[in-house]
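Quick question about two entries, pasted in order.
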Amino acid sequence: MLRTPSTTPADRFWHFAALLIAAMVLLPVCAIVWISLTPSADVWSHLLQTVLPGAFRTTLLLMLGVGLITGITGIGTAWLVTMCNFPGRGIMDWALLVPLAVPTYIVAFAYVEVLDYTGPVQSLIRDAFGFKTSRDYWFPEIRSLGGAVFVMGAVLYPYVYLTTRASFLIQSASTLDVSRTLGASPYGLFFRIALPLARPAIAIGVSLALMECLNDIGAVTFFGVKTLTFSVYDTWLNRSSLGGAAQLALAMLLMVFLLLWLERFGRRKQRYDSGGGAKHRPPTRFDLAGWKSGLALAACILPIVLGFVVPGLLLADRASRRLEELLSDGFWGMVWNSFSLAAIAALLTVAISVSLAYALRLNGKGPLRVAVRLASIGYAIPGTVLAIGILIPLASFDNFIDARMENWFGIDTGLLLLGSGTGLVYAYVVRFLAVSYGQVEGGFGRISPHLDMAARTLGRNAGQTLSQVHLPILKPVLLSAALLSFVDCMKELPATILLRPFNFETLATTVFEAASREAFEDAALPSLAIVLVGLIPVIFLARSSASSFRTRLSHRHRETAARTATP
C-alpha cells in the first residue's frame, strides 16, 4: 500500500468512488434482506412447513456428495501428477483442467442424452440382451440426486485439483526427503505429511466447488433435484411469489456465509513456511512402473473422459447434424447477445477492479479496506439470489421513472434498466468482480511504490499516475482479467434466465430451454460454442499456473543467492 504525506482531492475522489462501488455491489444483498422481512406473515410458516426442509436436506446431500467426489478426485490426481512419474504425466498435468471449460448444465443435458432410457447406452443393453422394456433390467436413473452428484463432481473437481496441485508443488522437498529417510512409505508420506500441509488449499478448492454447486440451476432442473436454488426459481416464476423467493434466497445466503466460515475454519492456523532456503526445489517424484503406472494413468484419464470427452463427443456429433444453423440469423443473434453482454460486463468489471485496487493502494485504511473486501463476496452469492436482489431496486427505479414521465409528459418509458439488459450486466459485474479484482490487485502488488512517488514528484496527480504509469504496466494483467470475466459471463445461466429482457436469448438460455423440452439437437451447437469459448481461459490457466510456479521458484533461488553473497 502506498502512503502519501497528504491527501489530495484526487485521492479523496478515488476513495469515494471505491466506497460507492462497494455499496452498489452490496445493494442486492441488502434488498434481499429487506424484502424477505416484509412479505405477508404466512409466507415464512408455509415455506418452513413445505418447501424449505426438503430443499435444505436435498441441497446438503448434493453438496456432501459433490464435496466427496471433487475432494477425492482432485486430491488424488494432484498427488499423482505432482509426486509420481508415469507415461503421459506431462499431458495429464494440464489436461485434468479441461472439464472446467464445460458448464455443469451442458454436461447434465449431455449425460441425460447418453444415459436416459432412449439414449445409446440403454438402447445397446436392450439390443444386446433382448430386453423389451425398462422393467426387464436395472439401470441407474440419471435423473436423480445421484446423477446430479456424479455430473457436478465430474465437472467441478478441477477446483480442488488446481489448488491442491499448487500446494504440493510448493511444499519443501527437504521436508519430504527427511520423511523418506525416516522410513515413510509413499502412502505414509501422503497421509501423514503432504495431505495435512495441503489442508488450506484443499479447503479453498472444495469451497469453490461447493459454491458452484450451490449456484447451479441447469443441472438440478434437468435431473429434477429440488435444491434451494431450484426452489427459488420455482417459487418466483412458477408460483409468482417474489417474497417467498426472497426468503429462500436469504436462507441460501446464510448457507453461503456458513460455507465461507467453514472454509476459513478449515484453514485456521494452517500457514507453513514452504522453505525459501537454498534447498527449496520441486519435490522428488516416485517412479511408477508396470501395472502401477497404468493404474495411475487410468486414474487421471477417467475424470477427463467423464467430465470432458464424453459430453464433448456427444455435442460434436449432435452439432454436426445442425450445421445449417450456422447460416441462420437466429444463431448469430444469440452469439451477438451473449458476446455483447459479456464484453460490456467484462470491461466494466475490470474498470471497477482497477478503481477498487487503486483506491486501496492510495489509502487502504479502515472502512475502505472493509468495503473492498465486502465488494468481493459477489462470487460466493448464487446467481438466483443476485437476480432477486437486483430485480427489486431496479424495478422500483424503473417504475418510479415511468410514473413520473407518464404524469409529466405522457410518455410510457417502460422498463428502462431491466428491459435493456442493464440489470443483467449489473448481475454479471457483481457476480464476477472477485475474479477480476484478484488478478488486478495482484498486478498492483507487483508494482513498486517508488514509481508512484517518482510520478508525484514530477507533478502527476493520482489519475495521471494511474493512466501514465500503472495501466501500461498492467496491460497483460488487465487482458487476462477481462478474458476470464468475459468467459464466465458467457457461461452464466441462473441470473441470465431470471433477468434477461423479453424475447432476448443468449447461448446459455437457448441451451437451457432446448434441453428442458428434450430438444437436445437444438441445444448442441450453442453448447459447443460455449465449450469452445470456455477452453480459452482453461488453456491460459494451465500455462499461467506452471509459469507462475517456475517464476516463484526462480525468485526464491535469487533471494537465497543474494542472502548467501551478503557478508
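Here is the second entry:
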Amino acid sequence: MTSISIAQPSNSKAAQRKRLTIKWTGIAALVTLAALAIFVLLPLVEVVSRALADKDGNFVGISNFITYFQSPSLVNSLFNTLSIGLMVTFFVVTLAFSYAYALTHTRMPFKGFFRALAMLPIFAPSLLPAIALVYLFGNQGILKEWLFGASIYGPIGIVIGMTFWIFPHAFMIIYTALQQNDGRLYEAATSCKAGFWHTFYSVTLSNARYGLLSAVFVSFTLAVTDFGVAKVIGGQYDVLATDIYKQVIGQQNFAMGSVVGVVLLLPALFSFAADRWVQKKQQSTLNAKSTPFTPEKSWLTSGVALATTSLITITLLTIVGMAVYASFIKFWPYNLSFSLNNYQFDLMDGGGWESYFNSLKMATLTAMIGTVFIFVTAWLNERCQTNAIMRQAVDFLSMIPMAVPGMVLGLAYIFFFNQPNNPLNFMYGTLLILAVSSIAHFYTVCHLSFKTAFKQIDKEFDQVALSVNRSRWDMLVKLYIPLSMPAISSVFLYLFVNAMTTVSAVVFLYASDTALASVAVLNMDDAGDIAPAAAMATLIMVTCLAAKAVHWLIFDVLIIGRQTWRTAGA
C-alpha cells in the first residue's frame, strides 16, 4: 500500500509574520544601539583623546595632566570642588532626612502641602538661588548683616545655593526609603521597651540606610558637577566646572579644558560606581506579611516636625520669593517701585525673548524625541532582545550619562560634532543638537523608569499575544503604551523641565540664533543685568510649573484618569 503525504506549506503567514517581526525588531535594536554609541560613547572618547593631545592635535600622552597637577590654581580648584561637594552633601542629606522623617514618621498636619513645596527647586534653574542670594546677602543685600562681615561671594554662597537646588533630589530618595517601613518592627521595639533613640538607630536608620547612602552619592555628584551656582556667586573661588568654562570659553584652550573635564569625571564616576554598588546590596524591607507603619500620636513630635518642615519651607520660599520680587523692582536698591522693565529682554544682552522661545522649542523637542526614543529602546532591550551581549551593551551605554557631568558632555559634543568630516556636522549650531545633548544628559533616569515599568508587566501578556499571532508592534501599541502611560507621562515632564532649566549641558553648544533662556540668565548676569537675569530665571520657573499643571491635566486627568481599568475594583 502506497502512502500519500501531503506537503505542508513551509512558509505559512504566521511563520512569515514571525520572521518578519524578528527581523525588524533586530534591525531596530541595532539602530538604537548605534545611536547610543554615537551620541553617548564616541563624544566621550573624543574628550579623552583631546586630553592626550596638544593644541595642534599631536599625541602627547599624559603631559597635559602633568601640567595640570603642576598648576597650583588648577589643583586648588580640585580641592575646592571636593570640599564643596562634602559640605553640600552633609547639609543637603541632613535637611532632607529631617524633612522626610517629619512627613513619614509623625502625624504633623498639612503633609501633602509640605511635600509639594519640597519639590519647588526642581522647577527652577540652578542660577535662580544664586541670584536670589545676591539680593539677600550681597553687597547691597537686605540681609547682608546676617553674615557678620563674611562675603556671600565664595564658598558660603556656593554651599547655600547648591543646598537649595539639590535638596529635592535627596528628599525624594530619602522620602521613598523612609516610607518602606514594616510596622511590625516598631511594634517589636515598643514591646521590648526600647527608647526613641534606640528604635531610631536600630529600626529607622537600619531600614533607610541604603536610601541614605544613595542620597549621599547623588548629592555629592550634583554638587561637584554643578556649574550655574558657582558661576554666578562663586566670585574668585574656583571649582572644576568653572575651570572648564574658563579654559574653553575664556582661553580657547581645548586641550586643558579636556584635561579638567576628565578630572571632573573621576569623582562623578566614583560616586556613581559607589551608588550602583549600594543599590545592588539593597534588599527588600517589605514582604507579604508586613504591616503598614502608623506613627504614634504625639503633640510634641508633631510640633517639632511641623516647626522643622516650616523652617525649611520658609527658607525655600524666601529664596524663590526674593528672586521673583527682585525681578519686578525698578532699580535695586534705590527705587523699589514695581515695574515690568526687567522683562523687556530684547533690550538686554543675552538673547532677548527669542532665547525664551528657543528654550520652549528645544524643551518640547527634547521631551518628544527623548520620550519616544528611550521608550522604544528600553522596550526593545527589555522585551524583544534575545542577544545577551547586545542587551548588556544597551544597558551599559544607558547608564553612562548618569556619571557624566553636563559640562563634560557639552565639551564632548563640541569636539565630536564640530568636525567637518563628521556626517552629523549639520546638527552643530542648531536646536536639534541642543535637544540631543539634553536627551543624552538625562537619559539614564528615563531608561531606568521605563525598565521598571516593563518589569511590572507580566511576560505572560507577550506569550498570549504571540499565541494568537499578534506581532510585537501590535503589543507595543495596544499593550505596552497604555500600561506604561504613567511612566511615559513622568518621563515627558522630566525631560521638558530639565531641558528648560539646564545650563551645563548646553552652555558650549548654542549659536547666536539658538541661545536658550537658561544661558541668557548666565549672559545677563555676566553683563551686570542681574535684575533681568532674575526675571528670566523666574520666567523659566513659572513655565516649568505651568508645564507641570498642563501635564497633570492632560495625562493624569484626561488620559490616565480615563483608563477605568486602573481603578476597577479599588
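Reply: Strands lie at 329-331, 335-338. The chain has a mean pLDDT of 83. Hope that helps.
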